[in-house]
Amino acid sequence: MKQTIGQAVARNDALDKVTGRLKFPGDLDMEGQLYAKMLWSERPHAHVQIDTSEAEAAPGVVVVLTGKDVPRNEFGLIFKDQPVFSFDVVRSVGDPIAMVVAETEGAAAKACELINVEYADLPVVTDPRVAMKRGAPVIHEEKGSNILKTYRIRKGDVERGFAQADVIVEDDYFTPLTEHAFMQPEAGIGYIDDEGRVTVHSTGQWAHDDRHQIAHALDLPEEQIRIIYTPAGGAFGGREDISVQLVLALAAWKVQRPVKIVWSREESTRGHHKRHAFYIHHKVGATKEGKITAMEVRIVADAGAYASSSTAVLANAVLLCTGPYEVPNVNVDGYVVYTNNLRTGAMRGFGAPQAIFAAELQLSKLAEKLGMDPATLRLKNVLMEGSRLATNTVVPPGVAVRETLLEVTETAGWSEKGPERTPAAANRRTGVGLACGWKNVGYSFGFPEQASCIAELYGEEQPERGVIKIGAAEVGQGVSTILAQIAAQTLRLPYEAIEVHELDTSIVPDAGSSSASRHAFMSGNAVKGACERALEIWKQGERPAVVTYQYIPPRTTPFDPATGECYPNFSYGYASQIAEVQVDTETGEAALTRVFAAHDPGKTINPRALEGQVEGGVVMAQGWALIEDFIQQDGYIKTSRLSEYLIPTSMDAPEEIASCLVEVADPLGPYGARGIGEMTMMLLAPAILDAIHDATGIWFNKIPVRAEDVLLALKGKAGSSR
Prior knowledge:
Layout: H1 14-19, E1 34-40, E2 46-51, H2 53-56, E3 61-65, E4 89-90, E5 96-102, H3 105-112, E6 116-121, H4 128-131, E7 147-155, H5 158-163, E8 167-175, E9 187-192, E10 198-202, H6 207-218, E11 225-229, H7 244-255, E12 259-262, H8 265-271, E13 278-286, E14 292-304, H9 310-320, E15 330-338, H10 352-370, H11 374-379, H12 401-411, E16 428-440, E17 451-459, E18 463-470, H13 479-491, E19 498-500, E20 503-504, H14 522-539, E21 545-551, E22 572-584, E23 590-599, H15 607-626, E24 632-633, E25 636-637, E26 656-661, H16 684-696, H17 707-720
Parallel strand pairs: 1-12, 10-11, 14-15, 18-19, 23-26
Antiparallel strand pairs: 1-5, 2-4, 2-6, 3-5, 7-15, 8-13, 9-10, 9-12, 11-20, 13-14, 16-22, 17-18, 17-21, 22-23, 24-25
Helix pairs in contact: 6-7, 9-10, 10-16, 13-14, 15-16
């Protein structure tokens, strides 16, 4: 049989997408459907009184829903601290207050304008460093404090470590709120199916958890809730929190008719969570030979008005903020804090990009202060097999950061004399920057982790066709194709003979969320295990052969409250990237010209898909570093449209992205594979800022670094040298 693993097969959803046969959530329609529109808070913090009587009497209106209509008016990914509809108090301008369901979309929109809301303003706090101080306005009064969670790590003796250092670098860093800016805003349709189940046809990142949260809010058994996903037009973590699914379920349950909703771009911007803003203080010490002796880090993250996945994001950042290095003495303190900003949660990298941003800039500054090549400094300290993490536990086998660093420097022509640079015009200066990174694969810190799969094998004398049923959400990353390749390889069938069933919670088992770069590893193992067992019972004569299999990885453990000791993760992905930037000294523009990206997928399942992940991650990181700037002022959104919140286009993309795949097999991964989806975007930003410094001699400690920032800094530098 032809080898399937390692082949650049076409995506199994490509034809339906390019021909328009595939229906995205906004394309879904049903006969007799109603239309819904939502009313959002106009204030970042206030007591509210709501009068819906005029809206209820408007032409075409079927029902107006508020918090009074929700049996349990609460939801949340980890903590149920967010109301479905805010009824007494609003805590951000992202709080929905009511929803109108009407015969037409226009009627629903007009009726929303007739809902009368009286606001009694409350004190607003938008800086988490202020919000965590004693005496700050408390956003959730029942909690008594705005500090949602703290974590700490204590390894070795930091004071002694800094005393042993010949060089110490200490600095402050900031990364802003970030919008996911996926192509299609949230949309879907809710209805009652033929078996009387409340059904939502939409998209997201974890259908079975959507079902769980909806069942809780509606106070219904989970078997009375059905979630069907159609592929998403991008997600990047922004669809991990529930959005329209819950209100569609509520509306369909109340009116017993199909209800459709499509958010506008402005609604999407205010209605889904953002990447956390981070304030980081980082201190690192090293000997003159370049061995790191100690690190001390303080992190303050902005949770916004509600918890979402903030505690898990903070935990990741606290672990990863020392970089992919073995550090003998570590102190880390992390805080995530409520504010009146929009809630923050999962976004590609889940705390790693912010943590690595500070750690890698510190390593580059340390190399400069030591007069040492930055690649050499990193090679002296990178994690190796058997290294101990800051949590005082041994890193899982399959460590590959050294291999990615060697590969990327060789590919980029980096020698003992330093990196090669492309010649530039007279008014341009070329700089090159380097960064390394690591990120967990799968859930961390004791969170229950599993993936289940049903494999069905059909045929007469020989296996002819395989069907895979698994709750792995397709959000553009190509997971359906990857799992089909694993199934084909294991069942010894052609790739074209594998069908991956639509994600429908009434049919497919739970495989966890499309997050944490986990599906290639977790769902891949579930598919491989189910297919292996299906082959076994096929050989015993069972036709068709149908098997349900659950894969459970090694157990992780939570932080010890005092020391942070734990076994945080069962697998990691590793990467190294080099950025070449040309800075225009007349305009300040920093153009990303070339990127070299070395990633370890463990085993390459589909090289074309991996290259696409790398290229997409690079451009996303470019936007984060240079142009994307989500602005809230006093709790109000100032960048609510894509004309105001800029993201990179094809005209901005680097001239060259060289993707280098380094295969160091993960001993637990299916065929040795591990995930790389998040790793591709999480370390380019510090490499870009390192390159800007290489070109100009100026360090920037926050992003985005816009042309005007560079130009002002160049003018300031020129003025100070006179």
